[in-house]
Amino acid sequence: MGWYVRSLGARKVMEFVVLVVFVIFFLGPLLNLLLLAVSGKWQYPAALPQSWSLEWWQFVLTQDDVLESISLSFLIAAVVTICSIIVCIPAAYAFARIAFPFSRWFLFSFLLTHAFPKMGLYVSIAVLFYKFGLMNTFVGIVLIHMVNTLMYMTWIPSSAFRSVHRAQEESARDAGAGPLRVFWKITLPMAFPGIMVASIFTFLASLDEAQGTLLVSIPDFKTMPIIMYSIIADYPSTTGAVFSVILTLPTIILLLAARRFVSADVLAGGFQVK
Amino acid sequence: MTEPQLSIRQLSKRFKTGDGVSDITLDVQPGEMVTLLGPSGCGKTTVLRSIGGFLEPDSGDILIRGQSVLKLPPEKRPTAMVFQSYNLWPHMTVYDNLAFGLHIRKHKKAHIQRAVTDALELVQLAPAARKYPSELSGGQQQRVALARALLLEPDVLLLDEPFSALDAKLRMEMREELRDIQMRTGMTMVFVTHDQEEALSISDRIVVMHAGQIEQLSTPQDIYDRPSSLFVASFIGRINLLPAVSDGTRIRLQSLELEPQPGQALLPGACTIAVRPEDVYLTDEQHSLAGTIRQVMVLGHYAEVSVVCDEQIIKMFVPREQAVHLLNGQAIRIGLRKFTAFPEQTAGITVSHTAASQAAATV
Predict the structure, then answer these.
(1) Segment A176-229, tens digit of pLDDT
(2) How high is the pLDDT of residue B283?
(3) Which of A122, B82, B171, B235 could disulfide-pair with B163, CB 3.0 to 4.6 Å?
(4) A174, B81: Cβ pair inside 8 Å?
């Protein structure tokens, strides 16, 4: 063993140690969460739960409002994604292709909603919502979610459209395709990975949104994160763990399904203000 | 004379930056390969893109087989274009790339299949039909792009520096292949390049462009032998540009008195003599220039010799066997077989004397 470590050299050993620390740092909390979700009794300082149990799973999944909240959250996320696509894809195309004054500043301004303290922004939006009667409505929730997703949905597809070279569109025009057909057959399919990634982010962000929803949805609309807040406050920590796993699941499934499209390149491209 | 396949009349297009072209008039006959040649920014691509419909000219007209196409969008024009790069659509297979235009024209499926297969065979890429563009090399991609343009059966095929992204050897092969395809199909082609060697080798006629205007329009042979301006002389092939003085009937180049070439009239004053390295020869005659050899470079079957005559460097080509006897520092005498003389300021030419002598130093 000793000779093996020596043959590797100090550098390799250090790299290995750093890697292990990183893995523990990133995956440790997740592992802890999983263990907690299936434990019956787990008291400090035991390394593993003293007893295993799925009783809190049963509890969470038999709560009516929990199941309702899951379907409501998915419905909202789907509607938010579709609305964002309808609103943002044309905008993204315009930012990518049409040179208009201050376009860069407009694009940059989408970052502002992420720069302010969220609560302050939501409170001022809530004041507007009261005036228009949007409080405690489905439309109100969708709108407040879209405030958050505008940036992803414009920036990432815009960079995707920009990466479609003009000559590629022009050669399609040359081959006899009108402008609309060029968009459907050439530009859109080539920008599809970027749009896909942005849509997934939008969907996940909407599933996870709690602050704004809490403010505008009370009392009738209870989404998953809202229910989770009250359950964490009222029940043992195991319930929270179970719920977290349920919330994480769609994220993982979606990311796995779309891993073909999700690459660091697409993301990095989206966050370059050109 | 038959009706020209493509006719450009007084075409002008100016961009905000000041670049562009003015007053371009050009007729291209059916089955002809015409090359627009010039340095970058001379407007050659502007002309090509105007023909293809990707630019709207400020004034002038473009006719294809007698019909004005100025009002037509690119998809309605009987032209097809091969771009410098980013030609193919990466989300489609080679087959689908080629079939795209035919589908739009609502051809029968069997017909499309046959046409695509034929086109791929023409560019020797039949096995690549099911591949995606990213699986092909640069040269193969450019051949597919060529096949796609040919399939559209355009009245005029436009090529925008199609081979400039390829390496030198491949570029030569593609040139030959393109010329071959042109001979076989009899297609009218307009080719844009900044590579004078490429232009000389494939064209029926060359249009030399400079600063948005046509400098000379002629056959490759004629442009090489009888450049109409100092710019053309220095841009095409290799050439020595030497300062000289004319008294109206004779030209004085250093110690040498020269008769102007037949058909050339010169005003008295300073002038520039353009002479190709292959038109400079070693001689024993008294009526010649004395100089010393500065450098001998063997370039395959011939050698390039730099001779210093009265502080001017003159380059000459000599056969390899003869070059063996030449040594650095050796005193020799050289004569000029033929040359062209240009007055110092030819109208419309912006090549200044210093630029010309720099060009001479770099040839």
Answers:
(1) 899 999 999 999 999 988 888 889 889 988 988 888 888 888 778 888 888 888
(2) 87
(3) B171
(4) yes
* Mutation target among A171, A173, A260 for the B interface, most CBs of B within 10 A: A171
B15 close contact with A: CB closer than 8 A: no
The residue of chain B nearest to residue A180, with distances taken between CA atoms, is B75
A204-208, B1-5, B151-155: range with highest mean pLDDT:
B151-155
The larger pLDDT score, comparing residue A246 to residue B40, is at B40
Of B54, B86, B152, Cβ closest to residue A175: B152
What is the per-residue pLDDT for B154? 93
Residues B158 and B257 in one domain: no
Give domain status of residue B236, yes or no.
yes
Residue B279 belongs to some domain of the structure: yes
CB contact under 8 A, B148 and A171: yes
Q: How many beta-carbon contacts under 8 Å exist across A and B?
A: 63
Return the HEC string of chain A. Answer: CHHHHHHHCHHHHHHHHHHHHHHHHHHHHHHHHHHHHCEEECCCCCCCCCEECCHHHHHHHHCHHHHHHHHHHHHHHHHHHHHHHHHHHHHHHHHHHCCCCCHHHHHHHCCHHHHCCHHHHHHHHHHHHHHHCCCCCHHHHHHHHHHHHHHHHHHHHHHHHHCCCHHHHHHHHHCCCCHHHHHHHHHHHHHHHHHHHHHHHHHHHHHHCCHHHHHHHCCCCCCHHHHHHHHHHHCCHHHHHHHHHHHHHHHHHHHHHCCCCCCHHHHHHHCCCC
Q: What is the CATH number of domain A55-270?
A: 1.10.3720.10
Q: Among A178, A190, A192, select the one facing B75 at the smallest CB separation.
A: A178
With a CB-CB cutoff of 8 Å, which residues 169-228 of chain A face chain B? 170-178, 181, 185-186, 189-190, 192
Last residue of a domain, one of B203, B223, B243: B223
Q: Same domain, yes or no, for B244 and B217? A: no
Judgement on whether residues B78 and B215 belong to the same structural domain of the protein:
yes
Measured between CB atoms, does B91 come within 8 Å of chain A?
yes
Residue B1, domain member (yes or no): no
Picking from A174, A192, A196 by the largest number of B CB atoms within 10 A of its own CB, the best residue to mutate is A174
Q: Is the pLDDT of residue A254 over 50?
A: yes
Predicted confidence at residue A268, as pLDDT, reads 62
Apex A22 CA angle, A17 and A24, nearest 5: 95
Give bridge partners of residue B59 from the DSSP assignment. Answer: B12
Out of A167, A173, A192, closest to residue B87 by CB:
A167
Residue B187 lies in a domain: yes
Q: How far is A106 from chain B (nearest CA, A)?
A: 25
Q: What is the pLDDT of residues B157-216, one digit of tens each?
A: 999 999 888 888 888 888 998 999 898 889 999 999 999 999 999 999 999 999 899 999
Residue B300 is predicted with a pLDDT of 84
Task: CATH number of the domain at B108, please.
Answer: 3.40.50.300
Task: Choose one of B223, B246, B274: the last residue of a domain.
Answer: B223
Provide the pLDDT for residue B257. Answer: 79
Contact (CB<8Å) B100/A189: no
Q: Which residues of A touch B159 (CB under 8 A)?
A: none
B219: three-class secondary structure by DSSP: coil
The confidence band for A269, taking pLDDT boundaries of 50, 70 and 90, is low
Is the Cβ of A167 closer than 8 Å to some Cβ of chain B? yes
